[in-house]
Structures are given as structure tokens and as C-alpha cells.
Design the sequence.
């Protein structure tokens, strides 16, 4: 709010002021006085907001966090289980205001000095965040040095301040830090005592409209236009639209915006819902030839206590609200000729978890789970002595609904539907078989369209089935083993085996150990009990081992199909981006030979593509060389490369190059290994290296 020395002098002056309206206001306000002396320290977070998928360097989410001492920062999960602060927006915004003499525009009149308490309050309120929300990803055009235009992804972060101003930050994607900030514009909302913020995003006739919905602690709700330059297909409102103007002292707690399709009007519409006290305020926005139509009303009789949390399933428009007494309401919107109505039903958490108090709810991205934060409720009319906060999960869909949604999904990405796949995984692990209807439906999908998404879904089902068939280990997996399991590498029989064989050997060895050596690592009494019927059990165990080998063979076949499909894609990129015979650093000849080595594989597309590439290569092979001994690295395996001197290098699953460095990337489920992009790589190779895992759709980092 000003130079450090001047701020310190002003704080001392206000704290010792003889005017109690100044001294008491200053001492009790934790924004002015974060140390608080005798007051408890300001630790923890006020609010957090997740960005859409695809905003950080790994294609995952960014996290905007607002601390109790009013500091707004952005964090990213760059390495596995490691969160890094990328930027402090509070500091940057403060510097901008300082340079502009705490005026939003040059036309603003000169303000008072910092020693004036009202000016001291104004400077704090204009940069004390209340809420922040991310927009969807939009596309901007960037002009290169040669006057070419390229599309660049960007995302907006709107920050609502105490005085009603909104700062709209624009970030270029992927967001790397301060250098990725494109612009920052401040909008004056004109709302007193703002409490909540949400983005309004509406699509009409392939034209995207956007704005900001702001709610007040006094009751009003309105949409503000947001003007953006150089954003393709982006439009906004001409002027603010008031959704609710009554100052009825019902504070707006939470706002959600849900895009829906109107079955009667045959067009898209936008449903805005806001929690106001114990009621839900709703507003249906519809663009017609006459302009913007606004229908609004309140849903009453939901809760006897104020709503503490609200969430919405954007797949079907269902809204969930909860009050602190452990009651959750499910509101389903039903369209009428004019507007809509809500059907609501009560979900009593006490029937599931016993007597609980609820503090917050959230629905998973595809609506499979409802997460609820709870503490113990009253027992015999008494409150608990200690509060133990727990996150409980309630399933909202059946296994059949989740499977049907995965089969008909337009997203076609398993990672983005992980809540649905979790329901399917739980069912297979429990029943130890894949339901017949799901297997038949998936086979039909594979035959009809052949999309790799359905092959990845099939691989997921087979892997979970294989996991369900294996016997649970007798020892806890994380507990370190004290057995000496060293082996001399030169004497080991599997010296020249590939990574595939090693992985298969490990899994087979583990299953055999769990099947045969049941006594190992168990108590003596258990071993004695198991040793008696062991001879009679062998006959029953052999079919199980055969079943496991059969599933393993199916998994390998699906993995090989997915590998070949990706190899075709890589070869297609090589053919499109090489005009002459050149060494692209991708083992093109090796990939071609690997695809054609299997006589049973007859793909006309692959044969034609390979023929064109070999003609372009003009008998040149451009082999890879071992960086340790300079020997040729033959392409005999998709997972690793072994030179004649026995040096083993892992292969990148995205480009099939050997990763000849100590640092590489892995996918989230540890399925595959990929190399890091280098400055020498052309743009098309860097684009290949940005792809997800070809087996499980997980990001790679």
C-alpha cells in the first residue's frame, strides 16, 4: 500500500490514535493487522480454485490458493507429488497499483495521503481478494516474426476484491510463471460488499459469449461484460444484466453456471443457480431473436438451516445443496414451455454415516461420486469434545450407468473420466469377472468404429481382471523386507532378456510365489495350517494359473495393437514433415521393420505408408548409436534398445527414440517412459512428446 517505512509509521499512528473509531478498527481488522499480537496466527487457506485440465506444462490443472493473510498464489504439480508456487499475484498486482499511484485510470482524481485512515482503508480494500475463479480455455492469435499467425491457448483468472473491483488476468498456456502473464485488466462492478464470483459462459450458434456473475452479501446478483481482444469467436454482453436486484439481506453464498439444451426452444441455454440463505435462486438465460430472455425464481422449502455448500453436475444439470445438519438435497431441473421447474429429493447422510455435521460438498467431474466433508454430530443431545474432519464419498451412479457412459462418451479419454472408471474397477475387483453385457458392447464398438479409445478401455478392463485374480500378498507391500535377495548379474540366466520379458517374469514370479509359497512371510501357525491341504489344492490352483496366463496373453495382444496404431501415427508425422531424405532422430527404418516383421499383421494403410517412407529414405537407414560405445542400437523391441556390448536404453513410447540420458518422464500410472524434449527438436516432435500415455491416457511427467 506504500513505501515500507511510511506504512510502518502509519500503522503505529493508527494503533495509538486517541480516536477509538480509528484505533479499534485498525487493531481488530486482520487485513491491516495480520500479526494480531495476542490474536491467533493467520494460518491456512480462505479459498482455492482449480483451473481446467490442460493449463500446466504436464497438461494438468493449476491451483489458485488464497491464504488467510490475503495472499493469492498459483501452484502447479510439476513433478510427481511435488507442488511448486509459480507466481504470487498479490505482489504483482500491488506493484502495478503502486506504479499507477493507486488509481485505476488516468482520469481518476488524485487521492489523499496514506496517513489519512480512509485512504489507508481504500488501498487495502482494492487489493484484498475475496474470491477467484478460472474461465474455460480460449484461443488467442499470436503473430510470429515472419508475420504468420498461430493459435495459442490462454485461460483467464478473475479475482474479486473487497471494494467490488475485479481483476481479470490473462495467462498464456502452458502456464510457466510470471513470463506467461499476457495482461491484467480491472473492472469496476459497482456492487457493495461482494461475496462470490463465477464465470458465465454461453455458446449460441457456435459463438461463445462470456461474462462474470457477481453476488453480494446484501442480496443482489448481476452479470458483468468482460471485453477481450484477439480472442477467436469470443463475444460478451453490451451492458451489465441484473439477475436479482432486491437488497433483502440474504447473502449470496455460492454461484454455479450450468450449460443446458432447451428441448422446447431447440437451442442451448444457461442455468445460473445461487445459494441465498436457506433458498436456491435460479435464473434461466436464453438468447432468441428478441434478445436475451431472463427467467428467475427461488426454490424454497429445501433446508431449515442456511445452505453451507452447493455443487453441480455439469453433465446433466443436477444441483446438490447441503446444510450443516447433515441433510443434502438433490435438485433436478425439468424444462417447461416457458422456463423450468425443479424436482428435489432429500439425501439423509445420517442413514449412511450416522449423526454428522456437514461442512462442504463437491461432485466429481463426471458425476460418479459426491464428496462430503463431515464431523461428528450430536450424541445424546451433546456436542463432541473434539472435531475430526473426514472426507466421505457417496456413489451417485450404478456400475451399469458408469459403463454405459464410458461406452457412449464423447470425451474418449480414460484419464478425464477417472471417477467413472473407478466405479467399473471396483465392480470387477469385487466380482472377479467382466460382466457379459459390457464385454459384448465393447467388442461391438471395436468392430464398428475401431477407435483406440475402446482398445484402451478393453486394456483397462483386462488389467483390473488380472489384478482381481491374483492372490493378495501375505505381507504389507510398503513394509521393507529384511531378506537378503542379492543376485550376481553375470550368473543370472535372464542376462539378455528384454524389459517385456523381465516385466512378465516379475509378474509371473510374484503370482507363483503367492500361489505356491504361501507359508513365506506368514506366522508359523498359518504355515502349519496351510501345509496340510497343499497337495489336494494343486489341482484347483492350476486352472487359476492358466486363467492368469490367458488374461496376460490378451493384455499383451491389446498392448501390441495400441503400439502399432501409435507407430502408424508417428510414421505419418515423419512422412508429412520431411521433404527430403534426412535424419529426423526418430528410428524410422527400425519402426518400419518392426511393423512389417509380423506376418500375421496385414494392414494395408501401414503397408502403403511404409512404402512411401522407404521410397523417400532412398535406402538410407539412419540407425541410432549407443552414446557409451558408439555401437548401433537395433530396433528389436518397442520398450528398450540393447547394443552389442549389452548397454540397455529405455525407449520413449511417444517417438520410439532411445532415452540416452539419466532423466526421463513417466506416465501417471507408470505404464510408459518418455524422453524430455530438447531445443534441437523440431516443432512436430515436440508436439508428439506432449501427448498422453497411449495405454491409459494419463499425462506424462
Sequence:
Amino acid at each position: 500500500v506504500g513505501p515500507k517505512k511510511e506504512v510502518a509509521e502509519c500503522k503505529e499512528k493508527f494503533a495509538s490514535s486517541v480516536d477509538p473509531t480509528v484505533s479499534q478498527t485498525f487493531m481488530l481488522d486482520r487485513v491491516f493487522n495480520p500479526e494480531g499480537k495476542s490474536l491467533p496466527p493467520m494460518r491456512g487457506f480462505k479459498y482455492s480454485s482449480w483451473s481446467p485440465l490442460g493449463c500446466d506444462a504436464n497438461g494438468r490443472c493449476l491451483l489458485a490458493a488464497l491464504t488467510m493473510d490475503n495472499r493469492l498464489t498459483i501452484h502447479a504439480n510439476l513433478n510427481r507429488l511435488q507442488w511448486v508456487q509459480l507466481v504470487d499475484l498479490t505482489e504483482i498486482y500491488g506493484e502495478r497499483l503502486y506504479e499507477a499511484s493507486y488509481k485505476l485510470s488516468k482520469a481518476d482524481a488524485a487521492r489523499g495521503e496514506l496517513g489519512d485512515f480512509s485512504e489507508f482503508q481504500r488501498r487495502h480494500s482494492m487489493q484484498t481478494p475475496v474470491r477467484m475463479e478460472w474461465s474455460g480455455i480460449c484461443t488467442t492469435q499470436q503473430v510470429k516474426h515472419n508475420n504468420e499467425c498461430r493459435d495459442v491457448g490462454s485461460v483467464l483468472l478473475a479475482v474479486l476484491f473487497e471494494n467490488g473491483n475485479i481483476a481479470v488476468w490473462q495467462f498464456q498456456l502452458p502456464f510457466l510463471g510470471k513470463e506467461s502473464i499476457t495482461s491484467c485488466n480491472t473492472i469496476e462492478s459497482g456492487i457493495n460488499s461482494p461475496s462470490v464470483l463465477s464465470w458465465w459462459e454461453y455458446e449460441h450458434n457456435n459463438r461463445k459469449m462470456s461474462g462474470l456473475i457477481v453476488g453480494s452479501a446484501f442480496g443482489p446478483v448481476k452479470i458483468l461484460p468482460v471485453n477481450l481482444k484477439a480472442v477467436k469467436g469470443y463475444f460478451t454482453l453490451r451492458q451489465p444484466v441484473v439477475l436479482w436486484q432486491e437488497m433483502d439481506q440474504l447473502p449470496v453464498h455460492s454461484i454455479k453456471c450450468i450449460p443446458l439444451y432447451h428441448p422446447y426452444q431447440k437451442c442451448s441455454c444457461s442455468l445460473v443457480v445461487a445459494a441465498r440463505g436457506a433458498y436456491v435462486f435460479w435464473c434461466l438465460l436464453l438468447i432468441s431473436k428478441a434478445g436475451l430472455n431472463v427467467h428467475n425464481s427461488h426454490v424454497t422449502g429445501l433446508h431449515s438451516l442456511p445452505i453451507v455448500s452447493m455443487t453441480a453436475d455439469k453433465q446433466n444439470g443436477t444441483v446438490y445443496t447441503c446444510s450443516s445438519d447433515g441433510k443434502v438435497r438433490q435438485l433436478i431441473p425439468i424444462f417447461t414451455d416457458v422456463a423450468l421447474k425443479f424436482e428435489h429429493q432429500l439425501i439423509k447422510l445420517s442413514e449412511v454415516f450416522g449423526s454428522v455435521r456437514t461442512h462442504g460438498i463437491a461432485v466429481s467431474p463426471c458425476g460418479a461420486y459426491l464428496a462430503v466433508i463431515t464431523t461428528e454430530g450430536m450424541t445424546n443431545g451433546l456436542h463432541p469434545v473434539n472435531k475430526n474432519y473426514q472426507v466421505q464419498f457417496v456413489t451417485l451412479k450404478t456400475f451399469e450407468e458408469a459403463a454405459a457412459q464410458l461406452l457412449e462418451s464423447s470425451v474418449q479419454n480414460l484419464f478425464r473420466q477417472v471417477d467413472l472408471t473407478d466405479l467399473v474397477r471396483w465392480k470387477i475387483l469385487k466380482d472377479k469377472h467382466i460382466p457379459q453385457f459390457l464385454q459384448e458392447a465393447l467388442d461391438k464398438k471395436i468392430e464398428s468404429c475401431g477407435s483406440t479409445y475402446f482398445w484402451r478401455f478393453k486394456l483397462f478392463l483386462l488389467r483390473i481382471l488380472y489384478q482381481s485374480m491374483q492372490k493378495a500378498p501375505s505381507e504389507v507391500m510398503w513394509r521393507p523386507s529384511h531378506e537378503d535377495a542379492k543376485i550376481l548379474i553375470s550368473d543370472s540366466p535372464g542376462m539378455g532378456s528384454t524389459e517385456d520379458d523381465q516385466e512378465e517374469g516379475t509378474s509371473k514370479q510374484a503370482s507363483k510365489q503367492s500361489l505356491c509359497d504361501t507359508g513365506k512371510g506368514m506366522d508359523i501357525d498359518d504355515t502349519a495350517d496351510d501345509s496340510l491341504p497343499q497337495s489336494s489344492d494343486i489341482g484347483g490352483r492350476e486352472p487359476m494359473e492358466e486363467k492368469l496366463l490367458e488374461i496376460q496373453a490378451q493384455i499383451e495382444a491389446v498392448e501390441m495393437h495400441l503400439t502399432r496404431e501409435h507407430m502408424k501415427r508417428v510414421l505419418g508425422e515423419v512422412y508429412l514433415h520431411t521433404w527430403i531424405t534426412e535424419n529426423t532422430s526418430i528410428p524410422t527404418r527400425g519402426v518400419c521393420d518392426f511393423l512389417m516383421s509380423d506376418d500375421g499383421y496385414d494392414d494395408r494403410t501401414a503397408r502403403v505408408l511404409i512404402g512411401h517412407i522407404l521410397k523417400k529414405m532412398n535406402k538410407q537407414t539412419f540407425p541410432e548409436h549407443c552414446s557409451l560405445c558408439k555401437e548401433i542400437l537395433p530396433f528389436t523391441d518397442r520398450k528398450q534398445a540393447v547394443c552389442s556390448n549389452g548397454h540397455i536404453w529405455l525407449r520413449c513410447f511417444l517417438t520410439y527414440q532411445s532415452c540416452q540420458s539419466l532423466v526421463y518422464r513417466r506416465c501417471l500410472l507408470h505404464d510408459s517412459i518418455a524422453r524430455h524434449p530438447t531445443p534441437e527438436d523440431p516443432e512436430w516432435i515436440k508436439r508428439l512428446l506432449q501427448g498422453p500415455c497411449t495405454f491409459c491416457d494419463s499425462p506424462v511427467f
